Amino acid sequence: MKKFKNQFENQILLIAFVSLLLVLQSCEKPGCTNSKATNYDSDATEDDGSCIIRGCTDSDATNYDYDANYDDGSCYYPDGEGVFWTDNNYGHGNIRVVFDYDILL
Question: 37: closest CA among 48, 26, 23?
């Protein structure tokens, strides 16, 4: 009878443990937990890898954004003569912006 009682107690403990795990898992809400992302979900408790951070993803660009994972076309590139260019001109070719270093300094 004692062996049966121990098996029953073990089964009860196992059921309680599994129930606790299920409750804890149900509290997790997957989503984007990075506040810099455009799809940030303040209710999310577990990052599911869906975060979209817009910015310049080209490490050769002047304004490279290490955190960005979605290139928004905002990259700027110096050409060595004080001219920066970007391909973000809404389909109308490259934009060239000239900076006079004397004015900037």
Answer: 48
Within this chain, do residues 38 and 73 fall inside the same structural domain, yes or no?
no
Same domain flag for 34 and 59? no
pLDDT higher for 6 or 12? 12
CA distances in angstroms from 65 to 12, 27, 49, 55, 85, listed in the order given: 54, 33, 18, 6, 17
Per-residue pLDDT tens over the stretch 66-80: 999 999 999 988 776
How many domains does the chain fold into?
Answer: 2
β-strands 83-86, 95-98 pairing: antiparallel
Report whether pLDDT(34) > 90.
Answer: yes
User: Which residue range forms the structural domain that includes residue 34?
Assistant: 2-47
Rounded CA-CA distance 39/96 in Å is 32
